[in-house]
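Many introductory courses stop at the sequence. We go one step further.
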Amino acid sequence: MTEHLRLTAGICSAITAVAVVLTSSPLQAQGGRRGGPPASATLQRASDLIREGKTPEALDAVRQELKSDPPSTRAASMLDTLGATKEARTVFQRAIDAAPDPAARAAAQRSMAMSYAFDGDCANTVKYEQMVIDYWKTREQAEPQNAFYQQGEMANEAARVCIDAGDLDAAEKWYRAGTEMGLKEPDPKTHPKSLWDYRLAHALGRIAARRGDKAGAQRQIDAARKALDSDPAMAEQQERFFPYLVGYVALYTGDLKTAETELTKAVQTQGNQNDPFMQALLGMTYDKLGQADKARAAYEKAYAQAMAHNPPAAFARPFARKQLGLDR
């Protein structure tokens, strides 16, 4: 009982710290938060309850919302956050079936893909992301720049879920496919080739590290650095993800001191402070270093920060929940 109270207090402290940052700086865009009208009072209460660690009460509030709005994708996203993923997918299917137009259907299908991501289900995430890609193929004539970019984004999103789930072959396939799709964007390009080169090198470096190929991972780190240095405008937005790459590779290839240094740098970089996946990686590093207190603190932050409906949260929320013993 004492351990549970101490753990809850730690998570609440982490949540408070996150809230301070969110209210004192511009929100960073996160996939899964796609705008729309303000949340209802019921869902706002559910969100507050999630942040307070009151899972049963939050579930009750979300279910109350669904009685009045059965296809609410906002409510379904909260169900995923709360670990009720099967229940969430019933709601997302309602939203898909009730979609008033192809764009709305594609948005609901993307949400369904992320729901499967919360269960680490690479295959079903890919299945629904492919549906979204198919929608964007229908938009190539009307909005070619955005359509090809979105196809690449959806493929990369599927790949990200697959690498986090440990399906490295599927991850590589979809990262490469995403790059090919994105590079089809016609002139005048709104997303440069250097961006796709950087993203692919970043991904292949992580995959190589997971496969135990330290030399291959280093070659991809060098390629990512080269892409950043070749395009200062692109690097202005993407540089912050480079320490995460170096730290990730170090973690999975056994260089724990470098992992600690680079991942600490990553989570302290402007724009990354609320990234739950990077916090989870730092927690893994501390675990391997035998620093249990620091590991727990990082997992508490990851759990508190994982409130979005996107790949970082889809991995970090259930992973941190397990590490903190909250599934018991």
